[in-house]
Design brief:
This protein is an all-alpha fold and 66 residues long. 77% of the residues lie in helices and 0% in strands. It is built from five helices and no strands. It has helices at residues 3-8, 10-20, 26-32, 36-47, 51-65.
């Protein structure tokens, strides 16, 4: 997964990310700014997922949207 591309397209992807993970606030999405580690941390915090599960879910999601 090329996170440079995700960071570059974050403005376009935020809406889809919000649809997928609706518990994330608009402020959190702005703070994340396409950064992989920040998104992973917020998903772990918000949903209580293990690191492996977060990685799998992010890879699946962004694999379909990039």
């Amino acid at each position: 997964m090329n996170w440079d591309v995700i960071e570059g397209k974050w403005g376009q992807l935020k809406g889809s990310v919000k649809e997928q993970w609706g518990d994330l606030t608009d402020d959190e999405l702005t703070e994340i700014d396409g950064k992989r580690d920040k998104l992973a941390g917020k998903l772990q915090e918000r949903y209580g997922w293990a690191k492996d599960e977060v990685e799998t879910r992010m890879n699946d999601f962004f694999g379909r949207h990039i």
